[in-house]
Amino acid sequence: MAEKTQVDRPLSPFMIGPYYRPQLTSISSILTRITGNALIVGVILMVWWFLALAAGPEYFETAEWWITSWVGNIVMFLSLWAVWYHYLAGLRHLIWDAGKGLELETAEKLGWICVYGSVVLTVITVLILWI
Amino acid sequence: MRYLTDRKRAEGKGAAHSGTEHHWYMIVSSVALAFLVPTFLFIFGRALGSGYESALATFESPFPAILAGLVIFVGLQHFHKGARVAIEDYAQGTTRKLLIMATVGLSYVLIAAGIFAIAKIAL
């Protein structure tokens, strides 16, 4: 029977910088991770907002004041962009998982779609919400 | 004596010990979120900053309430499983375990708080 042995497995080294020249594919990939993790801030604020809405008008005033203050607005605006970036980058992963779009040229094109697309979608969302 | 052969025990499990289950969950939840999130963004965005009465009226209706509950639940499951991969990339040993526990814990707290709030608003 195979014995279970404890092996100190190597961690994945941080490649960008010392080993790899930063490229669109690697930077757009790491941005997926950063936006996904950073969205927890927006989610915490959102859950707080829901709790305050459930708790009554006075609590709600406080939460809404913070979330729609200029600091809150910046956080929510960046979160909106993060959602759209992570959204497009996620779709890109689904395409890659299907084994398509892996040629360098297509992969780079998909990277630019994530970068520009997320900005365009953020602006469109803000415009629609503003009107 | 074990009756399962090594091959039988290992089949489909790989280095992660759970096969591709984690990755598959990320795919399933990402497709779900791809459908849920755009509509939710507009409903939540409109309610945010619209005042107490209007926000309450929005999330008292069944569709926005159910959608908000789904986004919070599926979104945070997707979050803690995704964050776990990042933790496993850069931390080892006890630090890794504690960070995973903290992330899962935070996600469950937010899911419980969010769904409690929405239930209280809608019911």
TrEMBL record, chain A:
Entry keyword set: Heme, Iron, Membrane, Metal-binding, Transmembrane, Transmembrane helix
GO cellular component: membrane
Co-factor: note: The heme is bound between the two transmembrane subunits.
Alphabetized SUPFAM superfamilies for the sequence: Fumarate reductase respiratory complex transmembrane subunits
Cofactor(s) demanded: heme
PROSITE patterns: SDH_CYT_2
Residues that hold heme according to the record: 86
GO molecular function: electron transfer activity; metal ion binding
Superkingdom of origin organism: Bacteria
TM region(s), chain numbering: 30-50, 70-89, 110-130
Keyword set includes Membrane: yes
Cell compartments where the protein resides: Membrane
UniProt GO BP: tricarboxylic acid cycle
InterPro entries hit by this protein: SQR/QFR_C/D, Succ_DH_cyt_bsu_CS, Succ_DH_cytb556, SuccDH_FuR_B_TM-su
Membrane topology field: Multi-pass membrane protein
UniProt KW Heme keyword: yes
Family: Belongs to the cytochrome b560 family.
Subunit-level organization: Part of an enzyme complex containing four subunits: a flavoprotein, an iron-sulfur protein, plus two membrane-anchoring proteins, SdhC and SdhD. The complex can form homotrimers.
NCBIfam families, sorted: succ_dehyd_cytB
Functional description taken from the UniProt entry: Membrane-anchoring subunit of succinate dehydrogenase (SDH).
Protein's UniProt name: Succinate dehydrogenase cytochrome b556 subunit
Organism: Salipiger mucosus DSM 16094
UniProtKB/TrEMBL annotation, chain B:
Pathway(s) served: Carbohydrate metabolism; tricarboxylic acid cycle
GO BP terms: tricarboxylic acid cycle
Tagged with keyword Transport: yes
Residue stretches spanning the membrane: 24-44, 56-77, 98-119
SUPFAM superfamilies for the chain: Fumarate reductase respiratory complex transmembrane subunits
Entry's Gene Ontology molecular function annotations: heme binding; metal ion binding
Alphabetical keyword list: Electron transport, Heme, Iron, Membrane, Metal-binding, Transmembrane, Transmembrane helix, Transport, Tricarboxylic acid cycle
UniProt membrane topology term: Multi-pass membrane protein
CDD domains: SQR_TypeC_SdhD_like
Cofactor(s) this protein requires: heme
Subcellular location: Membrane
Subunit structure: Part of an enzyme complex containing four subunits: a flavoprotein, an iron-sulfur protein, plus two membrane-anchoring proteins, SdhC and SdhD.
UniProt function note: Membrane-anchoring subunit of succinate dehydrogenase (SDH).
Name under which the protein is recorded: Succinate dehydrogenase hydrophobic membrane anchor subunit
